[in-house]
Amino acid sequence: MNVFKNILIALDLSDIDNTLIRYANYLAENFDVENIYFVHNIKKYEISDFLEQEIKDIDLEDSISRELTDKVSEIMGNKANWEVLISDDPYTESLINYITNKYHVTTVVLGNKNGHKGTGLVGFKLLRLLKCNVLYIPKIKAIDIKKVWVSTDFSNSSKKSFKVSALIQEKLNVKTKAVHVYNLPIHFSPYINNSKIEHKLETHVQNKFDQFLKKLKYPYQINKNLIAGREANAASKIRQEAQKHRISFLIVSDKGANTLSSLLVGSVTEELFNRDLKVPLFITKTQD
């Protein structure tokens, strides 16, 4: 499974574009990337009447296309087969979904602005709408995948995440850990002795972890990291620990064990997507 075969990079002419183009270049250098589509949607409905009069003689689509082509060419050069696609669709998420289906895109790359200069609403809509993988990248200086974490809840859905980490380990010499966050359901806490059951719970989860990895038959070396959630929920704990250990790539499945519908995104994945995450987040989409 080559998740980086055909990549779509969503650009919006903000500062994060440079990070996304550099990341595309990194992927092209290290993986078997065939096509990269740099997509920008001109939001003409956001242009005021006054400004529209000022630019009426300017071919906005052509100007932006040339600007982005020059920027991409400067960073990418001749690596992979890439092109810049410009449109003025009223709905960005519909445009990206259309291009994704038309060009058989395997992964869509979005910029994570961590709540600054953008609400992330389009990104969240795309997370639910797209059938392909999503890579959510914050503004980072160093682009180098060295430490990979794969979050798992031991569900069948999470197994797909390990195919992505295996692909990365095949191409790069990286340290990889399978990560699971566990905690005692808070509504049981008043009725039991936490100090006694905590050790039993940890041993139980360790056994489940071992059984899961054994059945997975993972082809490369992978360590496991069992994290006690305690008062924090899984998403908060993953975020804290990933940043604490300076993880360079975090992989999660779009759905977990409790998902009732194929149309829903798992709660942990959704929370990670919405949080102030300083780590590139790769979301594997389950395709039925």
Counting structural domains, the number is: 2
Structural class of the helix and strand makeup? Answer: alpha/beta
Q: Which segments are poorly predicted (pLDDT under 50) over 5 or more consecutive residues?
A: 259-264
The count of DSSP E runs of length 2 or more, i.e. the number of strands, is: 10
Name of the CATH superfamily of the largest domain: HUPs
Number of helices: 9
State the oligomer: single chain
CATH class of the largest domain: Alpha Beta
**Distance between the terminal alpha carbons, to the nearest Å?**
15 Å
Q: What overall geometry do the principal axes of the alpha carbons give?
A: elongated
The CATH architecture of the largest domain: 3-Layer(aba) Sandwich
The major beta sheet can be summarized as: 10 strands, mixed
Binned strand content: 15-25%
At the fold tier of CATH, the topology name of the largest domain is Rossmann fold
Overall pLDDT confidence: 85
Radius of gyration: 21 Å
Q: Strand order of the main beta sheet, please?
A: 3-2-1-4-5-10-9-6-7-8
The H-and-E topology, N to C, reads as EHEHHEHEHEEHEHEHEHE
Proportion of helical residues: 25-40%
Pfam family, one: Usp
Protein name: Universal stress protein
Family: Belongs to the universal stress protein A family.
InterPro entries: Rossmann-like_a/b/a_fold, UspA
Give the topology, please.
Blueprint: E1 6-11, H1 16-30, E2 35-41, H2 49-54, H3 60-76, E3 81-87, H4 92-102, E4 107-112, H5 121-129, E5 133-138, E6 147-151, H6 159-171, E7 175-182, H7 194-216, E8 223-228, H8 234-244, E9 249-253, H9 267-274, E10 281-284
Parallel strand pairs: 1-2, 1-4, 2-3, 4-5, 6-7, 6-9, 7-8, 9-10
Antiparallel strand pairs: 5-10
Helix pairs in contact: 1-3, 4-5, 8-9
